Amino acid sequence: MLLFINAEDVKDNLSWTALCDALHEGHQAPQADIDDILFKQGDNALLNRAAWIKGKGIGVKTATIFPNNANLAEPLPNVQAVFTLFDDETGKPLAFIDGNLVTKWKTAGDSVFAAKLLARPNSRVLTIIGAGAVASSMIDAYRALFPKLEKVQVWNRTFAKAQKLAQEKNAIAIQDLPEALSNADIVSSSTMSTSSFIKGEWIKAGTHVDLIGAYRPDMREADDSLLIKSRIFVDSRDTAIHDIGELAKPIKDGIIKESDVLADFYQLCNDGQGRQNESEITLFKNGGGAHLDLMTALYIMKMARK
Q1: pLDDT at 1 over 90
Q2: Helix and strand totals (H; E) in the chain
Q3: 93-119 pLDDT, tens digit each
Q4: Disulfide check for 173: which of 12, 163, 182, 217 has CB 3.0–4.6 Å away?
């Protein structure tokens, strides 16, 4: 039976812990084939992101990006998406899933799964940089995976937005970024910054740094000194290294080498080495990828069937 799944259908069934288990299982399967197709007409765009994991499934997330939708007489979201899931053996369509639902759980799940593999389990202070929808999801995800968290701090360039999110999530809004970073055990950043602003000198030994925001060649969040002093990991070597400024630019400039990226999820989930001691800084770049959307969609479909 073909399923049509929206957020309301599964809102009480999904958990960050179970999604991390699904991502671990997905990365023990054969490596995914992935590809993107982008069409543009003026400011508008159509993006198709496809993945095929042998023995698991085939998926295509189709997203429209129409920046002027907010200015319509009846405003619409700028980004609208649907995820189509197919059976791997027969090609039969299995489900149509709200694409924004998949993106929400994939984005935060990607990062919190990395933290599960790389951060210190006894981490007690989380600093969230940014105050948008992703930041809100990150607070929920980290609290689910790190039950020993005692304090969540929120920093945003616009302090009023940090205050609003902190109030919604029972967290603390903080204005001093160096202070917010220097006492953190985990730092999670999801901003639209095009210049590096997270300085290595502010990050203490043992911290796990989770970088979500940069997704274009001109975007960065961490400065060179932080990259140099960290052990670097990514979700996928295919998507996170060459096309995103966070790592591509410092590699091009000779600040770090591609070999300084120690492992991705496929390696970490198959006997790769993650954190080696309590004092090292681990840095994770969340680059996304259609295979992560597919793994997340398969988990959502499983829970919808229940």
Answers
A1: no
A2: 11, 14
A3: 999 999 999 999 999 999 999 999 999
A4: 163
Strands 208-211 and 186-189: parallel
Is the CA virtual torsion 55, 64, 237, 278 positive or negative?
Answer: negative
DSSP at 260: G
What CATH superfamily classification does 3-102+291-305 receive? ornithine cyclodeaminase, domain 1 (3.30.1780.10)
How far apart, in whole angstroms, are the C-alpha atoms of residue 178 and residue 180? 5
DSSP annotation of 200: G
Domain ranges of the chain: 3-102+291-305, 108-289
Distance CA(263)–CA(268), nearest Å, equals 6
* 40 contacts: CB under 8 Å, gap ≥ 6: 46
Q: What is the mean pLDDT of the chain?
A: 96
Q: Phi/psi at 207 (nearest 5 deg)?
A: -75, 145
Map residue 233 onto helix, strand or coil: strand
Residues 95, 100, 105, 108, CA torsion sign: positive
What's the first-to-final CA gap in the chain, in angstroms?
A: 14
Instruction: Tell me the C-alpha distance between 52 and 86, whole Å.
Output: 9
Helix residue ranges, H only, the chain = 7-10, 16-26, 99-118, 133-145, 159-168, 177-182, 224-229, 237-240, 245-252, 265-268, 290-305
What's the pLDDT at 306?
A: 84
CA 164 to chain centre: 22
What pLDDT, in 10s, does the model give residues 175-184?
Answer: 999 999 999 9
Main-chain phi, psi angles of 206, to 5 degrees: 90, -5
Show Cβ contacts of residue 194 under 8 Å, excluding neighbours closer than 6 positions: 218, 219, 220, 245
Give the number of other Cβ atoms within 10 Å of residue 180's Cβ: 22
Hey, what CATH topology would domain 108-289 get? Rossmann fold (3.40.50)
